[in-house]
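<given_protein>
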Amino acid sequence: MSKHLAKVLRQIRFENRTFWRNPAAAFFTILFPLMMLLIFATVFGNEPTGVGVTTAQFYAPALAVFGAVSAAYTSLAIGTAIARDQGVLKRVRGTPLPPWAYMTARIGSSVWLAALSIVLMLAVGMVFYDLQIRTEQIPTLILTFIAGVAAFAALGLAITAVASADSVPAITNATLLPLAFISGVFFGPNSEMPTWLDRIADFFPLKHFVEPFVNAFIPGTSADIPWTDIAWLGGWLAVGIVMALLFFRWDPRTDSGPGIGRRNRNDRITV
């Protein structure tokens, strides 16, 4: 077990180095949310809003979630799809590194980057914008982070399973960005969402990640664990896992179909 753990940790370090060598991935995962916080705080000011919280008190946690999802969903899906279609995953199966260890390292790297994105955002908010963290809400923040990142990592692998490396960036961005707008990432606390859009957002996982995470920073909100939101995230986690187990393949895609057609029976995720 210790030997396998050492291999996983080495692979995580390698995946992290690879991530930082990709300027686009590093920008959109780490720097873009920070840049948006600076823009919002500059444009709207950092005075208390109509609901009694400052601009940064709302946007810092919301954008922290956006950065975490970018790492766990977008970056994981794109990186894994590219590795598969370039033949990297196929070659991994011929190395001493077990396939499950390689995939664990990829997911572990994404979780680390998601945590880094959140910590950086909250640190910037505390240092420059007087962001207040309510200690009684820390259990909610931790549980929401775990459930949210797990759900989006599973969904990222599900996207990889059914799409080519060429189409994964378009699919992940086309799903994440609209959901970010209707799930409360980019609209402030005074914004009112049309009821039909709000109901659409209720069905998808991002709102159930953003809302309890942001509420944990709002004075006067309950410190109870948001089990309903965590249950929704758990449901999407299950969907992602099932799709990944059924359709994920290690060999490069050679078809232009939807990704759920013929494949080698040995291509599924191996443990």
User: Anything to note?
Assistant: Residues 2-247 form one domain.
